[in-house]
Input
Amino acid sequence: MGSISSALANALPRMKLTKKQSDGLTGLLMVLPACLLTLVFVIVPVVVTFYLSFFDWSFYHESQPVGLENYRKIVFDPWFWNSIWVGVKFTFWNMTISTLLAFIVALAMRGMSGRSAGVTKTLVYLPTIISGIIVSYIFVFMYNYRGGILNTVIGFFGVKPQAWLINPRTAMFSIVFPSIWLAVGYKALVLLAGINDIPAQYYEAASLDGANSLQKLMYITLPCLKNVFFYLIVTGIVAAMQMFDLSRFITNGGPQGLTTMPVLYIYNRFTSDLFLGPSMAGALILAAVLGSFSWTIFRIVSSEKNTYD
Amino acid sequence: MSVLERGSTIGGSSVRWSKGIWVKVFHILVFLIVGFCALFPLFWMVVSSFKAHADIVAMPMRFFPTKWITDNYAKLLSGGAFSRSLLLTTGLGALFVIGTLIVNSMAGYAFARLEFPLKKVLWPMVLITMFIPGISILITSFIVVVRLGMLNTIWVLILPGLASGGHIFFIRQFYLNFPLSLEEASMIDGCTRFQTYFRVFLPSSLPVFVIVGVSAFLGYWGSYLWPVMTISKQSLYQIMQLMQFFRSERNLRDGVILAGAVITSIPPVVLFAIFQRYIVEGIKISGLK
Output
């Protein structure tokens, strides 16, 4: 690709193209691979999903248009709403705990500098890079009935061993906990960057007025981080609602669907159901909500800095 | 430990919250707590991978093995399927990263610096992909690759995820900040637009390429859902797919799975260790735009 476009660009002056035309051609050729791939693997699938959501489509026979039947099916499927509800609960626990912890870590880390700051940042971020499926395995072994660390720890306090993953009361917690371990690092570093951007004069002025640490936190740090929190919460919600690995590999959606996240629900239908129309309709409903969520935050964040053309 | 103390002294003395020794103690404490929470699960994984099965299911648990054994690793690596998949996934991951950087940086440059026909149509098209959750196209992407005859080829693993609205946007933002004079100088020297991109922009792109490249590799390395839908030939199994296959189909014992978890965590950790400075410092630009 590169050599073609540079060869063309080289040949252009001889063909007496104006600079504008030559820029135009180079530009088109340079975006061509990205746009082609986007078209084939994103735009076409979206359009096809939308189109097929009105058909009783399957891999094995001719499909018939069925109008809104697929949407009716999915909207009246209690398991679809169950997966949404599970997603909302998971997202709520994941977001509140991980954002709070990240804020505490970021506050604790401000004022560190030099190598200690570098090493601590690296450690904080480390869990983020471990693949979700590997994290699932590690935590499954921690929850093991026999030999698991959790049962050993509660054993010290005289509590009997628990089957964490199949107990309806602990199953959700067992996927939320590793998700927090995965999520805190990134959030903490983003918040830390936000905290370090707050001008020191604000705090100095507040100190002169006799403000204490709590007042500085409430009236300077938190308001200044409003946009950072907003960004983290919206992107975090969109990511958490689409979490798949932990619910698939730690609990496999159980017990009784109590940890079946929306993506796992769609995946299960895809692997078990002959007719994919309802799954596509469900995926579209979810995507519309999540997509408009992230679109809104993008408009708000970028309108302030004018990054969107 | 000496590094930590030296660093903390600097931290304690230079900053306005400085209260001498207590700040220093507090920072060491923060470091230890954060380090413990981040490392404990990984440390536990490594130690347990050297345990015999009896040690793994011992109650109450034994943190350290009664006898350190390497049987789990021997079992995992026997037959060669694991090491073959490891090599294949690493190789394809590298290819994926190179492709990602080429495709997205060319587009990022053109969108940042050039005026070309259809730009007003193509830019929103690329941008909108940032807001399309993967879940909505999971099934139809599968239909598309079936129709293209790409199942069970390496192309199905590499091509669909290559172009990314997020990466193009990120690289474009980076290029927008390049001084115009840099570009003009190279044009005066007789470089074409493409040569300017190649000789002036690419060599200065390391910070942004590291962030995009590492995130592309981590995404590729950890992917399970897409390979499991599109690859059924065992010789093409990607590493996470193979791990899950070992665990559910072959019913390999916990120790062997843990050994596999240790080995498959090495490439991401090594990559992170090499580039951690760029990644950790890059949080600022990527997070707040």
About this structure: The two ends of chain B are 35 Å apart (CA to CA). The first helix of chain B runs from residue 2 to 14.
